[in-house]
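Project standup — Tuesday

K.O.: blocked on the structure for the chain from last sprint. Re-posting the sequence here as requested.
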Amino acid sequence: MADIISPESPFKEEVRQLLEGSGIKEKSDEVLGPFSDITNQVAEALWNAMLPGSPFSSLSWELLTFTFICAAGFWFFRKGRGSRDATGKERPANSLLQYLFPRDIYTHQSARVDIGLYLLDRGMFPIWFALSLGTVAPFFERNTIAGIEAAFGASPAIEPTIAWRLLYGLVTILIADMIFYWTHYMMHKTQIGWALHKVHHSAEVLTPWTRPREHFIVGPLWALGPAIGLAISGGIFAWVFNGNITQITIVNVGIFSVLYALNGNFRHYHVSFRYPRWLELWLQSPGMHHTHHSYLEKHWDSNLGLVTSIWDRMMGTIYIADKYEETPWGLAPKDQVEYTSLRDNLTTPFKEIFRILRKKPKTYPDISVSAPEESRNLTL
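H.V.: unblocked you, prediction finished:
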């Protein structure tokens, strides 16, 4: 493994030759969108660091530390309120340590499954990166530029003023948010999508490591959708500005990544972080995502957006809970029993998809539960 990760790895040299032979790393005097240009610049660095410690990652030590500092501030100003236990109920904490790192959360089997799926996600990261930003994004970006040039001619070469840069950033965020919403919506509203997405919703407690808790075959879906949307946005503005927007894109994506990482850790954390109700009608707060993870039927399929609440409001999927409303996390008990261990979360989706394709009725193990026994019966 050390040889593969090292810069001198023959494996990396073969990949580098493949990228060059496919034209992905090809330099050109044509108008290049940011993703084509970025791909050219980072292809070398990607294979030199299989597990990147980017400060833009929500799980970097810098942002995790900042998350815990913010949570400590909540403990002080809220006088111990806002923390939830393993059942999703609010649990006032007398000590800061109990507030930040409650034993029942971090020793829970679900938290251990988070770590296993996180490590698998990190191992698959170079593949998803190569498929999305390394191949698909440049392809769509170049074709977007070519299509606009065919329809409207040469670039107007507009000067990228601050106003234009802000517009570019806003359009990019809205496109990414729209694609995320509809991808997420289909995950919840289709049988096969839900069989796979149950892995994420099977988290019975929320920790920062719950965010990448997904089945490994779902990775391309989450990677390709935004890659295509952002590539189209990058292609449009590359034509508007006549290229040379790579640094603008890096700044935009960097700002968005840091802001989302700061916010995003609280989306999967037992400490609730809410916005004022009027603001939650427009922006998704981390506390709204707590509601999204609840197995109570009134909370099902709610708050599917990533950044904004626009699409949830349009589709009627928004749910703004009371400040300390109970949100028990996980799946309905009949489903939860099949998605408990790491092995369950890796194998059960395949069993479910096989059952769906064979059009077999869903059967549940005979279990005794004290919690509500609702279970989703999707027909799409």
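K.O.: great, moving the ticket to review. The chain has a mean pLDDT of 81. The CA atoms of residues 183 and 225 lie 8 Å apart.
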